[in-house]
Amino acid sequence: MPCKKMTLRFDLDRPEDRQAWEYLQRLNPVSMNRAVLALINRAEQTDLLLNGFRAVLREELSAAMKAAPFQTVQTDSNNDDETDTTIMDFLDSFS
């Protein structure tokens, strides 16, 4: 299989770019290529692991929520005006 080439540009005014550039400059050309390839592959593996972890977490939370005993609570909607007035009177007392 033929080799593929790619150009990478660094904006040295950005701290992240400068840090990456300085790291690569400390490597020789052969290890520089290997380091970049290793970082790309590691990033892909990390993404796959995170997505897998999120899927498992989502499934487990969903199962736990379905199994959790919930009780419905009924409130008396007739007292809403009274409660609001009481709360507002209490808050007005601080003025």
Strand content: under 5%
DSSP E strands, number: 0
Principal-axis shape equals: elongated
Give the overall average pLDDT. 87
User: What percentage of residues falls in helices of 4 or more residues?
Assistant: 55-70%
| End-to-end C-alpha gap | 79 Å
Radius of gyration of CA atoms, rounded to a whole number: 29 Å
Helix count, DSSP H or I runs of 4 or more residues: 3
Based on secondary structure, the structural category is mainly alpha
The residue ranges in which pLDDT falls below 50 over 5 or more consecutive positions are none
How many separate structural domains? 1
Topology record:
Layout: H1 15-25, H2 29-67, H3 80-92
Task: Name its key features.
95 residues; elongated
Tell me what the structure shows.
- The structure is a single chain.
- The chain has one domain (1-75).
- The model has no long low-confidence stretch (mean pLDDT 87).
- It has helices at 15-25, 29-67, 80-92.
- The chain is an all-alpha fold and 95 residues long.
- Helix content is 66%, strand content 0%.
- The protein has three helices and no strands.
Please give a quick description of this structure:
With 95 residues, this protein is an all-alpha fold.
